[in-house]
Amino acid sequence: MSTSSQPRIFITGATGELGALVLDQLLATVASGEIAVGVRVADDDRARKLAAKGVQVRVADYDRPETLATAFAGVERLLFISSNSLDRRPTQHRALIDAAVQARVGFVAYTSLLHADVSPLGLAADHRATEAMLAASGLPYALLRNGWYTENYMASVAPALAHHAFVGSARDGRISSASRADYAAAAAAVVRSNDDLAGRVFELAGDTAYTLSELAQELSHQSAETVPYVDLPMAEYRSALVGAGLPADVAALLADSDAGAAEGALFDEGRQLGALLGRPTTPLASSIAETLRALGR
Questions:
Q1: The pTM is what?
Q2: How far is CA 253 from CA 152, 205, 261, in A?
Q3: Are residues 192 and 122 in the same domain?
Q4: Is the domain of 53 the same as that of 114?
Q5: What is the span of the domain harbouring residue 243?
Q6: Which pLDDT tens digit goes with each residue over 60-70?
Q7: Which of 9, 47, 67, 178 would you label with 224, given CA atoms 20 to 30 Å apart?
């Protein structure tokens, strides 16, 4: 555990994939005693691993509002990572924002969705509602409107190789994805910044865009196998995902996102993410290469 009783920076959802990456990014430039992280359970293995990094571990359970204000006590800068509980997200986010107000947090950075204010994606509604809550709260805040994670498509590489087809429902929509590590690095840059970023809206996406046909072509090239892109109607794609073993709500989310991509919902050419990083975002080809290496290909 850190010896500091009042860390400056707090990361919610630190046991999640994004939160863990943000923490590692911060620890490269910020003393561990300046960081606190939120977990649901304080005495499990994941919490102990975080504590071993020297940061302060506090219980901050989105489903137990009474834990939140105590967890945020003394915090200057809060990284608010959106909940992954699709059915409870608005209630959880309201509790977190109320707790941040009660604790008088100095600045909040919220991980929203790319172009959340106009996005047709079903995911966007909860993010719009949370952005409205933040605007009404009086808290100084910035919006990190994250685009699509390349990893969302890399999860389909193994089945695509097995079945000799990359399946989707995005037609020829262009997708400006970036790696989860890219988004984590951007979040770390914002939450550790000493600049006044209150009121900023960062539309974060990859520097370059691709269609799923182009993804399949790159996968074919790198794997030396023929993997064509097969575009399905949204309902058929959703059924295929359920048939592959995904929960119905996750399958519906992914199918809706592909359908949104067909309408441009996952495209952005502002390059704000690369600007925050001070480097290019991770290219699709690099993500495919890393995925193939992990598969032993």
A1: 0.95
A2: 11, 19, 12
A3: yes
A4: yes
A5: 153-174+207-269+278-294
A6: 999 999 999 99
A7: 178
